[in-house]
Amino acid sequence: MTEDEVMMEYLRSCSIPEENVIDELRTQSPEFKLFYSAEGDRIRSPILWLHNKKLRKGDQLQPGFLAETKTFPNGYVGIIIRNNPAKIGDSSTIAHELAHVIFGDEGFPRVGHYRGCEDQEVIKLASMFSNMIHDPLVIEKLLKYGYDLRLEYAKECIDGIKKFKKRPEYSGIARIKASFLFAQSLIEYDLLFDENNNPVMNTYQK
Ligand SMILES: [Zn+2]
Q: Ligand 1: distance of its center to the CA of 2 in Å?
């Protein structure tokens, strides 16, 4: 057995049935039901649903996981979830990850790192660059299906802007990362919030 085959066998052995995610959410979440009926057929990559109950908010469904899963043989994509079966509260994060899969399957380009790269900073930078463009597209898609993402993203937008304000303290890659995050936060803000009630810009101006 090759190393790839061993890894795939292992991942398949710990993957959970797709029904535990999709069927659960389609019955519990009206937004997911709408999303999946309209977008489900666009998913081409075979998905391995992996369960890790210790995932914390923030690292659940790793941002940039698509870049990572490119290394899975046969085009497999891995999506790590915290609850098995999925709960209604997971609806938007799971739809979010599936939307990333759809953009990937439709050929929307991502910036990747070179094969064999082990420099975590470079890997993270490539993933942040891609997310700066992909995440707002994902959000735009989810909004169409009635997801209210404001609460979920308000903190993220504010944090992105706060980090940018501190950029003179950073050097090198950290400074570039702060700029990527800032651009992403502004675009996401623009998609999600009303201009007259602008908590993000208020924070920025303080
Ligand atoms: Zn994302």
A: 32
**Most confident range, picked from 4-18, 71-85, 170-184:** 170-184
What's the CA-to-centroid distance between 14 and ligand 1, angstroms? 24
pLDDT band at 204 (very low <50, low <70, confident <90, very high): low
Helix (H, G, I), strand (E, B) or coil at 40: helix
Please write the tens of the pLDDT for every residue from 101-149: 999 899 988 887 777 888 888 888 888 899 899 999 999 999 999 999 9
Radius of gyration of the chain measured on its C-alpha atoms = 18
The 15-16 sheet, strands edge to edge:
15-16, 47-51, 77-81
Are 133 and 26 in contact, with CB atoms under 8 Å apart? no
Residue 55 to residue 110: CA distance in whole angstroms: 25
Burial of 152 (0-12, 13-18, 19+ CB in 10 A): middle
Range picked from 76-80, 84-88, 117-121 for highest mean pLDDT: 84-88
Distance 139 CA to ligand 1 centre (A): 9
Domain extent listing, the chain: 3-105, 150-206
Q: Are 20 and 81 in contact (CB under 8 A)?
A: no
Span from the CA of 136 to the centroid of ligand 1 (angstroms): 8
The band of 202, judged by pLDDT with boundaries at 50, 70 and 90, is low
